[in-house]
Structures are given as structure tokens and as C-alpha cells.
Amino acid sequence: MITRKILTSLCAMGFALATSGAQAIPLSDLFEGSDLTVGDKLFNNWGLEYSEADTEIDFGEIEVTGLDADPMNIGLHFDANGQLSVFGPESFLDISFVFDVTVMNPDYRINGSSLEITETDFAGEGGLITVLETVSDSGGSEIDVMEAYSDNLFGDEMLIDSLAFGSLASVSITKDILIGTDDFEDDSAELVSFEQHFSQTRAAVGVPEPSTLLLMGIGLAAIGVVRRRPQRPRVLSS
């Protein structure tokens, strides 16, 4: 019989082989029903919630690449390729999309997430880039919100945000991206790239219910009484 330990090792090897040399996939393909597997994480159920912008966005040019260098912190890299940018005074871009993340290895659970703006490009005096992310459980209940931003006008930025939560087999992500410029003629703002990671931990080993523990205790006590009870002498018949 193949032991659980061997099965787990084989699964881990399979996940590693499936994602070795991961290639970029267009965000448009994901919106059209494609899935992305990175390490032991399945990224699926992608969907565009809304998109409003002064210029047309080609989601086929936005590339998503799996990050599997650390198997305990699997992630995604988004390369916008010039699509998440605005130019001129009081220009804006506002999009929102969703996806689910599921850990496929039964020995692990997702217990945290991080968001990072990895590269921006500003021109002129004013511009703001904000990435807001809502993390929910598989039932749709909101867990928490992360925000990363860069404000060129006031020189203020927080490029990384993270959160920790209870161990879950699956989470849902809603990502909101807002980019805008001030009223200066030569303003421009571009979100070049950003990343997302999901940390994980070993799944908790199940413990018996209190009623089960009580029955086990009674059973063990009964065995102890039987073993301690003196034996009656045997009477041999003549």
C-alpha cells in the first residue's frame, strides 16, 4: 500500500513539474475562462467586474506570470505593458477584476496574502496610482482589505501591504486599480507592474470531539478496573 507520505511527495513533484518554466498568460485569456496553476495553487474563476478609462485598455497585452520560487509563498506577477496608464490633465483609469485561489495540496492551507506595486512611471507634477484588494473566504464573507499606492503630487507612497488570516483552503480576490492625474498639462501616470503572493501553512491535524474523548476515557477506565479486579480462586471438582 502506498503511504500518505509517499502520495504527498508525488503530488508535490507533480505540481513542481507542472509549473517549471512558467510562461506568461494574457489577462484576457483568464477573463475568457482559462485557469492558471502555480505550484500547489489553482487560480481560476477570473472575471472583469468593470472597466472605465479615458483610453481603451487591451487586456490581451497585460501578462500574468506565476511565481513559484518559494513554494510556501506562491504568487503572480502582472506586467501591464503600457495598458495601465493615463496621460494629460485630469485623466483617469478605474478597473476591477476578480479571481479565486485554491490550495490543491490537502496538507496545506492559505493563511496570508501580500500585495506589492513593483514599478511605476510618472511624468509631470501630479499623479496617483492605487491598487486596492479585498480578500474574502469561499463563502463570500470579506476577510480584510489591502492597499498599495504611489502619490506623485505629494511624494507619498506605500508600495507593499499584507495581511494574515485563519487557515483556508480557498480565498476570493477582488482587485481594484485606480490611476489618475492632476490638472497639469504634462501629467502622466503608469502602473508598470505589480505582484501578489499567498503564504501557506500546514493544515491542522483534526482532534477528537469532546464526546469522543469522554467515551475513550470511560473505556480506558473500565479496562483498568477489569485488570485490577482480583481473580476468584478456581475450585476443582473431585
What are the low-pLDDT stretches, counting only 5+ consecutive residues below 50? Answer: 1-21, 233-238
- DSSP helix count? 3
- Termini gap: 56 Å
Structural class: alpha+beta
Strand content: over 45%
Q: In angstroms, what is the radius of gyration? A: 27 Å
Largest sheet: 7 strands, antiparallel
Number of strands: 14
Mean pLDDT metric: 85
Please tell me what the overall shape is: elongated
Order of helices and strands: HEHEEEEEEEEEEEEEH
Helix content: 10-25%
Question: Can you describe what's shown?
Answer:
The chain has helices spanning 4-19, 27-31, 210-228; strands spanning 25-26, 36-38, 41-53, 63-67, 73-79, 85-87, 92-103, 108-123, 127-137, 142-151, 156-158, 160-168, 170-181, 188-202. By secondary structure, it is an alpha+beta fold. The strands form 2 sheets. Strands 1, 4, 5, 6, 8, 12 and 14 form a 7-stranded antiparallel β-sheet that branches. The longest helix is centred in the last third of the chain and has 19 residues, at 210-228. The radius of gyration is 27 Å and the shape is elongated. The chain starts with a helix and ends in a 10-residue tail after the last helix.
